[in-house]
Structure formats: structure tokens, C-alpha cells
């Protein structure tokens, strides 16, 4: 669980939910809009209460006894009276309930209220959270502190520095009064050291040494074979020095300008994604165009029913879904899209979400 400006976000691990999909039985999925400030907690409680009432009525109408339904929904009902829980929310609460199974997850995306009852959990609204398509590294580089983060569009996690210097002092043990500039013949034929440089020159040289040391260590820490973008948060003049020293091949061309020392992780996340939005939009378009070409060549599909069947057979290599799940109109179409999503994730296929797109379903196949 993480607390930041997107509220309280639970671990976004839905592996247990995916495993439960394979268990036969009724599954209830409830989505409750929430507020990061907790100011609408009473409204959220009422929304969940009403959805649980509707779920109970539907299940009883389908033939289950009131006792069976009460037992099924009991874990979710217990949430209603937990006032401290409701004060610590993110942007939506997703509740999964099945016989002997319960998971409530606070997620940092705004979702409309919904209730779904069926043989499968409704994971379609969570596609932006589940997608593995876009991640960034963010390096906050200040004299007093270095921090490295891994972030999706919605969640940011601080990574251990390992061999990366944590501060200026880690690189510069002692601050000399002068810089020793050794030039052969500069102070005689024997190459004697010549002491030169103003205080400003000395500070600049030491700062560059620090930036280069961090850059070199970051290259070693992240490796040279990754394509995930690294965004630097630092004074603008640090960027060219850092890029020259760092062997990591995917450093973004712009920095989050200014001293990042007092920026919260979520502020860094927001700033980084604002910088790369244009880049990501272009990348999305290229990737979608390539997938369309593959599908037209017979190694994929635009038909959501065909995609759902292929996903359940483990054939989907990459599934593309609109970021806004309401683009799927009609319960039958949404159910097919959900089947495609679940099947793709269960067979370790890749999920991509697209912003502005006309696609209601697009997939490339493994075979």
C-alpha cells in the first residue's frame, strides 16, 4: 500500500483474481468511485451498500438462498462499517467476490460505478492498470540526494540505488581549496603540477565529477540493453553532462527542470509523463499501425469474438484495447472484450492500451 497525491493505492497485483477466474462459480465485481481526500467517503459507502443490495437481489432472483448470498457477500459488507478504511482511498475501489474469495483494491484511475455478476470477474475497466505497455525510469538528481524510480502512468515505485552514489558527498569526500591541473611542461620541463582555477571553477569541476559518477553508475545499474525511457529530474545544465557519462541507451531528451530534492514521488511521476506524452502518442500510433499490418496479413484479427477465442486458446501475442473501456458498447461485446483480456493475461500475452483510437479490438497472434 502506498500513500501519495493519488491517495492510498493498494498493490496492483491481480494474479489471485486471474487464478480465481478458472474456478467455476458465481463471481461479483463491484466498482465504487472514491476520492483521494476522503471527503466523499460517505457517498462511496452508500454506493457500495446499494450495489451489494442489488447484487443480493439478483442472486436471490437467480435461485440462490438468502443465506448463501449473505455468506458470499459478507466480506464486502464488512467494509461498510470500517470508517478508517474509507478515509484512505484512491480514485476508485474495485471489489471482487466469489465463494471463498475476496479482494478489494484501491486503484489510481477514475472508473464509473458498476456491478457485474457472472462466471468471470469483470477486469475490462482495469485495462489501463493491467497494461504492460508503458513504463519509465525517473532519476531525481540533486546534490543532496539521488533517487531512482520505476513508474507506470498511475503508480511510481522507488528502486534501490545499489552502486549509484546517493549524494554529492558520496563522490567528493573532501572539498579541496584548489583544483590540481597537471599539464606536461606547464610549470617547467618536469611536468610539475600547476595549481589553477577560481573557486567557481573548482565547484564546477567537482559538480561535473559528481554528475558523471552518477551517470556512469546508472548505466551499470540499468544495463545497456533496455529500451524503457529514463527521464532525468535535475537542473537543465546537468542533462548533457549526465548523458555523456551514462551508457544507458534510452535517456529522454528533456529533463524535469529544477532541483528535484523536495518533489514528491507522485509529482515526479506526473511531470515525467507530461514530458513524454508526445513521444508516447507517436509510439502508440506506430505500434498500432504495425499491429494492423500484421492482422491484415492474417496473423491477427480485428474481430473481438475471434480474438476472445484465440486468447482463451493461448494464441494472442499482443492485445490492443481502448484505454476507455466504455468504447465497447453492449454487454455482449464487453463480455467478449473481458474474455480476450483475461485470456491474454493468463497466457502471458502482452496488453496494450490506446488513447484516441477507432479500434474496438485488435490483436496479433502467436500462430
Furnish the topology, listing elements before pairings.
Blueprint: E1 2-4, E2 7-9, H1 15-20, E3 27-33, H2 41-61, H3 66-79, H4 83-87, E4 92-98, E5 101-107, E6 114-118, H5 127-130, E7 136-141, E8 146-151, E9 156-159, H6 168-171, E10 179-181, E11 194-196, H7 199-222, E12 229-234, H8 238-245, E13 256-257, H9 265-299, E14 300-301, H10 304-312, E15 316-322, H11 331-346, E16 350-354, E17 362-365
Parallel strand pairs: 7-12, 12-13, 15-16
Antiparallel strand pairs: 1-2, 3-4, 3-6, 4-5, 7-8, 8-9, 10-11, 14-17, 15-17
Helix pairs in contact: 2-3, 7-8, 10-11
Description:
Mean pLDDT is 88; it is low at 177-196. Helices cover 40% and strands 22% of the residues. Strand 7 (136-141) and strand 8 form a beta hairpin. With 367 residues, the protein is α+β, with helices and mostly antiparallel strands. The radius of gyration is 26 Å and the shape is globular. It has 3 domains: 2-122, 2-Layer Sandwich (Translation, Eukaryotic Peptide Chain Release Factor Subunit 1, Chain A), CATH 3.30.960; 136-277, Nucleotidyltransferase, domain 5; 279-365, 60s Ribosomal Protein L30, Chain: A. The strands form 5 sheets. It has a 5-stranded mixed beta sheet, with helices on one face. Strands 5-4-3-6 form a 4-stranded antiparallel beta sheet, with helices on one face. The chain has a 4-stranded mixed beta sheet with strand order 14-17-15-16, with helices on both faces. The protein has 11 helices and 17 strands. The chain has helices spanning 15-20, 41-61, 66-79, 83-87, 127-130, 168-171, 199-222, 238-245, 265-299, 304-312, 331-346; strands spanning 2-4, 7-9, 27-33, 92-98, 101-107, 114-118, 136-141, 146-151, 156-159, 179-181, 194-196, 229-234, 256-257, 300-301, 316-322, 350-354, 362-365. The longest helix is centred in the C-terminal third of the chain and has 35 residues, at 265-299.
Amino acid at each position: 500500500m502506498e500513500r501519495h497525491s493519488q491517495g492510498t493505492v493498494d498493490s496492483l497485483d491481480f494474479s489471485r483474481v486471474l487464478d480465481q477466474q478458472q474456478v467455476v462459480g458465481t463471481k461479483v465485481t463491484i466498482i465504487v468511485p472514491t476520492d483521494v481526500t476522503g471527503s466523499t467517503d460517505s457517498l462511496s459507502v452508500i454506493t457500495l451498500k446499494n450495489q451489494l443490495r442489488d447484487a443480493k437481489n439478483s442472486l436471490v432472483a437467480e435461485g440462490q438462498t438468502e443465506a448463501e448470498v449473505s455468506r458470499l457477500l459478507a466480506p464486502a459488507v464488512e467494509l461498510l462499517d470500517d470508517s478508517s478504511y474509507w478515509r484512505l482511498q484512491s480514485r476508485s475501489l474495485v471489489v471482487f467476490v466469489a465463494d471463498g474469495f475476496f479482494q478489494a483494491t484501491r486503484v489510481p484511475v477514475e472508473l464509473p460505478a458498476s456491478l457485474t455478476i457472472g462466471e468471470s470477474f469483470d477486469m475490462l475497466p482495469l485495462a489501463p492498470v493491467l497494461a504492460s505497455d508503458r513504463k519509465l525510469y525517473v532519476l531525481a538528481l540533486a546534490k543532496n540526494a539521488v533517487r531512482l524510480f520505476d513508474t507506470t502512468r498511475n503508480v511510481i515505485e522507488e528502486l534501490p540505488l545499489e552502486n549509484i552514489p546517493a549524494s554529492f558527498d558520496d563522490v567528493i569526500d573532501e572539498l579541496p581549496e584548489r583544483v590540481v591541473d597537471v599539464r606536461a611542461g606547464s610549470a617547467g620541463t618536469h611536468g610539475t603540477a600547476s595549481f589553477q582555477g577560481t573557486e567557481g571553477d573548482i565547484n564546477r569541476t567537482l559538480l561535473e565529477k559528481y554528475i558523471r559518477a552518477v551517470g556512469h553508475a546508472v548505466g551499470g545499474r540499468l544495463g545497456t540493453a533496455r529500451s524503457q525511457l529514463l527521464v532525468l529530474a535535475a537542473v537543465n545544465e546537468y542533462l548533457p553532462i549526465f548523458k555523456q557519462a551514462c551508457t544507458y541507451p534510452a535517456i529522454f531528451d528533456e529533463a524535469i527542470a529544477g532541483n528535484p530534492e523536495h518533489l514528491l514521488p507522485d509529482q515526479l511521476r506526473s511531470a515525467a509523463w507530461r514530458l513524454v506524452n508526445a513521444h508516447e502518442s507517436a509510439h502508440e500510433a506506430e505500434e498500432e499501425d504495425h499491429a494492423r499490418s500484421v492482422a491484415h496479413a492474417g496473423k491477427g484479427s480485428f474481430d473481438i469474438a475471434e480474438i476472445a477465442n484465440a486468447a482463451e486458446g493461448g494464441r494472442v501475442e499482443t492485445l490492443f484495447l481502448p484505454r476507455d473501456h466504455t468504447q465497447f458498447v453492449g454487454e455482449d461485446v464487453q463480455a467478449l472484450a473481458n474474455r480476450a483480456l483475461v485470456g491474454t493475461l493468463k497466457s502471458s500475452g502482452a496488453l496494450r492500451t490506446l488513447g484516441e483510437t477507432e479500434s474496438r479490438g485488435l490483436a496479433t497472434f502467436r500462430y
